[in-house]
Design brief:
The protein is mainly β. It has a single domain, classed as Sandwich (Jelly Rolls), CATH 2.60.120. The chain contains no helices and 12 strands. The protein is elongated and about 45 Å long. The strands form 2 sheets. Strands 1, 2, 4, 7, 10 and 12 form a 6-stranded antiparallel beta sheet that branches. Strands 3, 5, 6, 8, 9 and 11 form a 6-stranded antiparallel beta sheet that branches.
Amino acid sequence: MSCKSAIYTVNNSLPTVAVNGTIPVGTIIRRFGCNINISGSGITLTGAGYYDVDVSVTATPTAAGAVTITLLKDGVAVPGATATATATAAGDSVTLPINALVRLQCCDDSSTLTLALTGTPSVINNAAVVVEKL
């Protein structure tokens, strides 16, 4: 049996993330229910169903160029859950939003959502993640 669940996490500790690195989701600001929790640098989902995922990342790249974040489910890119922005100079902040719907099938015990950075190494000024079990 599942329950309504939601989590809101924020990381504003200014970590520098290398290319192909994982953006840490930070700490829990709000959490409700039993199906969603933080696990390491990701968010663990338990219980079959659909999960609405909303991400907002503000990054400051160390050089001019494209910054891309991708939502991964168990290490695999979620289709369409990618955001890219281009900084014209080092130190120019960019904001990257992602909205996605993720499914955890009945045969899956759990899955972990993570955020991967590609493009240009960046300081993560803020990473806010909201996940809600529908």
